[in-house]
Amino acid sequence: MAILLKPISLSSETLNIYKPKSKKSHFIKKISNSCSPKPSFESQKRIISEFNPKIPLEQAVTPPSSWYTDNGYYEFEVDRVFYQGWQAVGYAEQTKDPHDFFTGRLGNVQYVVCRDGNGKLRAFHNVCRHHASILAVGTGQKSCFVCPYHGWTYGLDGLLLKATRISGIQNFDVNEFGLIPLQVATWGPFILINLSKNIQPQQKDVSNIVGHEWLGSCAEVLSANGIDSSLSFVCRREYTIECNWKVFCDNYLDGGYHVAYAHKGLASGLKLDSYVTTAIFDRLMLMKQLYEKVSTQICEGGSLDNSDAFDRLGSKAVYAFVYPNFMINRYGPWMDTNLVLPLGPSKCQVIFDYFLEDSLKDDLAFIERSLEESERVQMEDIVLCEGVQKGLESPAYCTGRYAPAVEKAMYHFHGVLYDNLST
C-alpha cells in the first residue's frame, strides 16, 4: 500500500535552497553530527607540521610524501578541504531548464543538483531517507526523484511525496524525511555547492557574495579575461588517474616548467619564456581574514609555423587555479575547465568540460582537431602524474624543492592547503 503524503509548505529563505523549519533544522544537525564523525586533528598534526609555509620559497622544501600517500591524512584532508566552503561541481547549461538535473560525488558525499518546476536551482544529498539508496544517476530531466529500491518519491524541492507500504508505522513525521538540502549558487557559467553544515540565510547579490568567497579579488580579473557565460558547451571528457589529487594540481601549477620536456606539441604554440604567475596572498593578514585562494598563470601564444594556419591557442593563454581543485583555462576561442575529484590517497578523477565561442561552434573540423590536440596533452600528463605517484610511494623520496622562478603557484597552493588543514 502506498501512502501519499501532503507535506507542509516551506518558505524559500535561504541561498538557493529551502529553509527547513526549526524542528527539521535540529533534526538535520543531529543527523550530521551523530552519523559523520570527523577525523581527529591531533592524529594528523605531526604529518601536517612536516611542511612549513613560513619558510621563503627560495629556501622551502615541498610537503612530505605522506601528504600524498597516507590514508589517515587523506581522510582528514577531504573533511577539512572539500566539506567546507564553495566547491565547483558543474556548469549552468546542465540545469538550464526546469526539471534538469545532474549528480556527482565529492569525497563520500553523493549530491544531486536540479532546477525545480518553478525554475529554482536546488541541491540535495542524493540519498534516500528510507534505507540510504542512491536516488538519481547521471544527468537528464525528472519531474520527481523515485528511489529505485523501495519507490519512495521526492519532489524537486526535496519534499517527501510518497512512502510505499508504511501502514502501521509510528512516530513518523513527513517533514523530517525530505531530502537533506545543500547550499547551491552560481558564478558566471559555473555551479557551486557548499557542504558546510550550517545553512546561511539568503542575502542580496548572491552571485557577488559567492564570487568574493570563492574567487576573492580575482573574480573581476577572470571576467575581464573572457571567463564568462558567453561561450557554448561542447563536450565533456573524464579521466581516472592513479595518483593523489594534489599530484595533478602540482603538475598544473609548475608554471609551465614541464611543458618543454613533456608536451612538445603544446610547447610549439606557446612562448614559454613569457609565463607570468600571480598568486595574491598576504601571510601577515592570515590570522585576521581568509586570504586569496586563486593563482593565475598567463602565457603568450607562439607564432604560427604550420602551413594550414591551425591555431587553437590564440595570442594569449590564461590558466587560473581556484583552490582547492578547479582549473579554468582560457585560450584563443576556447575555454576548458578541469575539476579534480579525490577518490583515495592514490586515485583521482579529472573532469574536463570544453566551451567554445559561438562563431566556431559549427566548425566541426576545427573542434575535432582541437580536441585531439588537447587529448594528447592529457594523455601525456596522465603518464607524468602516475609516474610521480609511484615515486612518492617509494622509500627513496620524502621531500623535494621548488624552482623559485617558475613554481610560485605550487608553493602558494601548498601554503593555502596547510592553513586550511591547520585552522
Automatic annotation (TrEMBL):
Q: Where is the Rieske domain?
A: 86-193
Keyword Transmembrane helix assigned to the entry: answer is no
Q: Which catalysed reactions does the entry list for this protein?
A: choline + 2 reduced [2Fe-2S]-[ferredoxin] + O2 + 2 H(+) = betaine aldehyde hydrate + 2 oxidized [2Fe-2S]-[ferredoxin] + H2O
Q: In which pathway does it act?
A: Amine and polyamine biosynthesis; betaine biosynthesis via choline pathway; betaine aldehyde from choline (monooxygenase route): step 1/1
Which EC number(s) are documented for this chain?
A: 1.14.15.7
Recall the GO molecular function terms of this protein's record.
2 iron, 2 sulfur cluster binding; choline monooxygenase activity; iron ion binding
Entry GO terms, CC: chloroplast stroma
Per the UniProt entry, what are the Gene Ontology biological process annotations, in alphabetical order? glycine betaine biosynthetic process from choline
Q: Which InterPro entries match?
A: Rieske_2Fe-2S, Rieske_2Fe-2S_sf, Ring_hydroxy_dOase_asu_C_dom, Rng_hydr_dOase-A
For the protein in the UniProt heading, the enzyme class is oxidoreductase
Cofactor(s) needed by this chain? Fe cation; [2Fe-2S] cluster
Question: What keyword terms does UniProt attach to this protein?
Answer: 2Fe-2S, Iron, Iron-sulfur, Metal-binding, Oxidoreductase, Transit peptide
What PANTHER family does the annotation carry?
A: CHOLINE MONOOXYGENASE, CHLOROPLASTIC
Q: What does this protein do?
A: Catalyzes the first step of the osmoprotectant glycine betaine synthesis.
Family per similarity comment = Belongs to the choline monooxygenase family.
Q: This protein is called what? A: Choline monooxygenase, chloroplastic
